[in-house]
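Practice problem 4.
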């Protein structure tokens, strides 16, 4: 039986400036897991970004990306819960997205971001593109 769950934010807490987890931190987290604690990582980032930093951990863990919109177990990648919309729902929002430039995440068939480029002013669009490239999102 687990001691309990330790939930930790990744970006800005465990990872700074896109650096990998430090070896001492990885070893400390592994020791917590060895002592019976379940480790859950939470972030507003994508699964892909998160796993770039966490996949080297030598123990099973939980991941709640997209600000908790889903919960995965790793290393098996099992989906424990998901609040994502299916593709047909996203397509129904296309008109809204075109009008307001909203961003909608969908992950069942892969990670996707739906936004209407022409709805964003150039500085915001540049920011979105830089995040996509620089943060591997």
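Answer key:
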């Amino acid at each position: 039986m687990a001691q309990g769950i330790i939930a930790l934010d990744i970006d800005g807490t465990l990872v700074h400036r896109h650096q990998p987890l430090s070896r001492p931190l990885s070893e400390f987290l592994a020791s917590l897991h060895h002592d019976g604690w379940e480790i859950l990582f939470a972030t507003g980032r994508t699964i892909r970004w998160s796993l770039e930093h966490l996949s080297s951990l030598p123990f099973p863990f939980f991941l709640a990306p997209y600000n908790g919109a889903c919960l995965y177990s790793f290393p098996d990648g099992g989906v424990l819960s998901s609040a994502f919309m299916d593709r047909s729902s996203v397509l129904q929002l296309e008109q809204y997205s075109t009008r307001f430039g909203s961003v909608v995440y969908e992950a069942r068939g892969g990670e996707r971001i739906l936004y209407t480029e022409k709805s964003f002013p150039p500085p915001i669009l540049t920011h979105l593109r830089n995040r996509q490239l620089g943060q591997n999102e």
